[in-house]
Amino acid sequence: MVLNYIWIAFFLIAFVVAACKLLFLGDTEVFTQIINASFDSAKNGFEISLGLTGVLTLWLGIMKIGERGGVIESFARLGSPVFSKLFPDIPKGHPATGSIFMNLSANLLGLDNAATPMGLKAMQQLQELNPEKETASNPMIMFLCINASGLTLIPITIMMYRVQMGAANPSDVFLPIMLTTFSSTIIAIIAVCIKQKINILQRNLLLFFGGLIALIGGLVCLFISMPQETVSLYSTLFANALLFTIICGFIIAGIRKKINVYDSFIEGAKDGFKTAITIIPYLVAILVGIGVFRASGAMDYIIGGVEHGVAALGMNTDFVGALPTMIMKPLSGSGARGLMLDAMATYGADSFVGRLASIVQGSTDTTFYVVALYFGSVGIRNTRYTISCSLLADLAGAIAAVTMAYLFFG
Q1: Are the C-beta atoms of residues 159 and 341 closer than 8 Å to each other?
Q2: Coil, helix or strand at residue 7
């Protein structure tokens, strides 16, 4: 229901802004730009789904082998002490716990191509437990909000973009990004725990988050002492080696269980293909709404208004140059990435705005894309408070990004 209202708002606001630009500014191209943006966004949504087809087919096939080989069950037992507290409605030992564990682990390591299929598999398993098939269940909401908060330990992609844009020290945003994305994830979990009346002060949760903080601190100490080339080399090597190890491990587990590994892969791969087809309408719908909103100029007016308001309050306006990336981030991943690159090209990769835009890009995931993708794959229409909690995490990430930018580079 919330997504429905937001989608309608995109179009109505875009129409009002476009009509005003035509009547008062004589902009005769605005409606042409909106229509072109809608077509381009529809094409982009289809191409994204098409690109996911091969990845989904591969990884859901591998996941089926892991499921029949008992690996998913082992992951479920491994994650049970923490996930039983965050996801109390999931039965103990259910395969969904293992899929969630693998998805979040892949996200932490920046393995996007593996994380998405694992996440979609988790959503399908959670849907099996869901008594109301068109309404998001509590575990689904917790899972989606953690995903939307975008917790990643190694933001290798952003550092690579900074290399391409000529940054003197591309990894100087590593620590600020890590602290920012951790902040947004904590806010997302706390918000959902409050809504679902989950006690976040439980011993297992405190130990888990304490261990995560220690891990992040250790990685920070390790990486800040290494040159950028070494960080990129080791993180990429580790991620790819881990990915292939997972694939081989699943196959070996299937052999030990004496299952037909090939047939299991084919069965899972068929599910991946079906899932990719299912999500096309949902992605096209949300991306067209966002594209129309951008093309109308509504985004520019919002940014301009904020800049004038901040200046009127006598506050520092250095961060405003990165505001387009902040606003675009929940709406469009590719749009936010383009705005980040534009900020670095306009102000310089090592400027305050260039660094802040990089931190923002790594702070959270793309909320509306994640919601449309994951809920669309299982036909959820009523998202309940998923979007509000995710946007709260986005806001926390944006505030933390600005704070970290002033702290480290201000």
Answers
A1: no
A2: helix
